[in-house]
Amino acid sequence: MADTDAAEAQVQGTTESPVGTSDNPSSQVFTIANVITFCRLGLTLAFLALFAGGHQRTAALVCYVVAATTDFLDGQVARRTQTVSWLGKIMDPIMDRVLLFTGVLGLLIVGELPLWVPVFVIGRDVYLAIGGLILQHFRRRPIDVVYVGKAATALLMFGFCDLLLGLPVVDGLGLVSAAWLPGLNSQASALGIFFVYAGVACSLVTAVVYTFKGVQVIRDSRRSGASA
What we know:
mainly alpha; two-stranded antiparallel sheet; 7 helices
């Protein structure tokens, strides 16, 4: 599921790419990139413990920012050192979601994020994961990543980091009266909340795009089966 095209090429022996590249991942476990990925997990858990405790917010933020930075670093290291591995391909997106969910959970625990935001973010990922499993019955190759999805992740990560920092605090815009929309109502909030709202909007668009693409894959598969 991580890369069905590369897996099939390896099995058939048709791949011409060097071992350790994205098109021909290795079976190595202990690579520099994988160590960085697992360090991201450790930093993420350390952040949650420190942040939930309420007394080490600065240290918690440092852990989270460093962990978020390694999200870019491990992929670059793997590609530049030709040590792309199957483990890395599987673990990297999992660690991304763990980092995102942990930031959401930390902010929710201390009451600095409306409940509907983590419910939406986690619910959307569960929805897409179930959809991906269903599509495996119709096409082995996953649906290509859409750029609005990348934008959603970047906006959410930046917004959560700023909310964790808590600066700068801006006055509420007073556009709505709903208590569950801090920043848009009259309640003051860290600037990051607006990036979170933008990330949520992009996430919703991403879910809609993937849904339409998934429906099209199912229709094409059934049409091909009927014609055969």
